[in-house]
Amino acid sequence: MKKPSTKKLPAIRYTIVPKDLAGHLFEVSVTVDQPSIDGQLFALPAWIPGSYMIREFSRNIVQIRAESQGKQVALAKLDKHAWRAAPVDGPLSLHYEVYAWDLSVRAAHLDQTHGFFNGTSVFLRAIGQEALPHLVDIARGGDPATKTWRVATALPELGAKRYGFGTYLAANYDELIDHPVELGDFALASFKAHGIPHDIVITGRVPNLDMARLQADLKAICETQIAFFEPKSKKAPMARYVFLTLAVGDGYGGLEHRASTALICARADLPVTSTPPTLGVSDGYLKFLGLCSHEYFHTWNVKRIKPAAFAPYDLQNETYTALLWLFEGFTSYYDDLLLVRAGVIDEATYLALQAKTIGSVLRGSGRTKQSVAESSFDAWGKYYRQDENAPNAIVSYYAKGSLVALAFDLTIRAKTDGKKSLDDVMLALWQRFGRDFYAAGADGGRGVTEAQVEALFDEATGLRLKPLFNRYVRGTEDLPLHKLYAPFGVRLHDQRKSDKPSFDVAIGRDGADSKLAQVHEGGAAHVAGLSAGDVLVALDGLRIGGAATALDGLLARYQVGQVVQVHAFRRDELMQFKLVLQGERVPGITLELVDPGKKVRGPARPSA
Asked: Domain range holding 305?
């Protein structure tokens, strides 16, 4: 297909240059050919879709100026996100520098090793002109370190060759900011999933990376997910997909986009070439594959099937929805489920992953106080701003949301004798709200409301599922997983070590001492009066120390029910506490497949 000429496109034009690698500065310019006659308004987003927290990216703009036809134009700052240029007769350009030193998937980072940016961090929005095409010239800059750099992004090329510096095209501002960009010397491999090119980009030093295994495993995952949503046509919703991965010493995270994902992982989690080839999946590699599966599933579930509150996004303000349990929780359910359907892991590994999730949810008393619907709505103020009391106050719409998905799936399968499953609900959501989302124009299609979600569950399954919504989505009841697993030949065990004495705390470090990071409600430390932040000094006159197992080592000499004396510093004051040792309250969840003849993972595709 012939690429359009930039000369014929009325567009918003950007240039971004890695200007000062040691100073971590991108130089950015934006030109508007026909600015507003009242003075063009510009704003930088306050948050990035997929990460529900006001991040105030504009604080990283170091300096900014405006000009038109070679003359300086007055530029007034209206608030911490927005500027207005004085009216001009002719094209208007803004030039600014962005400080990029956030080594995460959410913002921008630049140094001598690589560059990375999300559009929300660097591209000012020309208010009122978001629907126009947006052109981006990604320039190499003059630093010698960039001579061997390449460009990785899912943005369509216009004046650039694939992986090269040059001009890229977005149909509108929403598309522009939905394609992160990686600059650097990176490892690169490609594969096709049902005919669609997929690129794997690995930035960072990873000795003996087994790229062939990574290609094979990701291909299996991607093809399984494409066929999940389009079982007949196996048509993917994107023309090309890119896994942008930054490998570091210790890190984990991902952020979804419509045709790519930005990932960060520990280099030890990536597969290593060996002779003979390594069999099985290590815990670290399994964690990375689960992350890839999660973010790839978002290509459908949240990037195209969206809550109504996100269609379109309000990028300057907090945007509330009570549906993140569906978009993040259900994605967390399917990320592991589709690993086993793809043949990447076996059923025993899958059940072990489910058991771990169940244990993590049961660990915190916050699950009895906050529903997953409330957790979704409170994401901006609570989930993304967790403190030391989080386990006692909130529940994760990721973790418990995945268990809600499991409960729905098992219930639907049992009540329909296997004729229907949660797959049918997801397929109906895709067909009704997701498949044609971006065909609807610059702002996309319509999102789904809470009422529509609930109605669609009943419609797709032929069941009345309102009681489950009341108890487990809007309510705080624990899910009856023992009962729900039984028809599928799975038995749930809770083998917590009730005879093992415990403080029931999470321990951190404070120099050479142990520091209480979290104190669980109702546990021995809480009852005794200890608090998060207290630095433990001694147990019955013996120094506790700061080693990870120091407290456990001392407690091994005691019995449940014994009374001990604990000395601790709170701030600079030494305090003494009388503590009655309780049994270990950490759930020891295991799932046993007692009837291997029964399916625990469902059909390979929706029954519809």
From this structure: 300-491+594-608
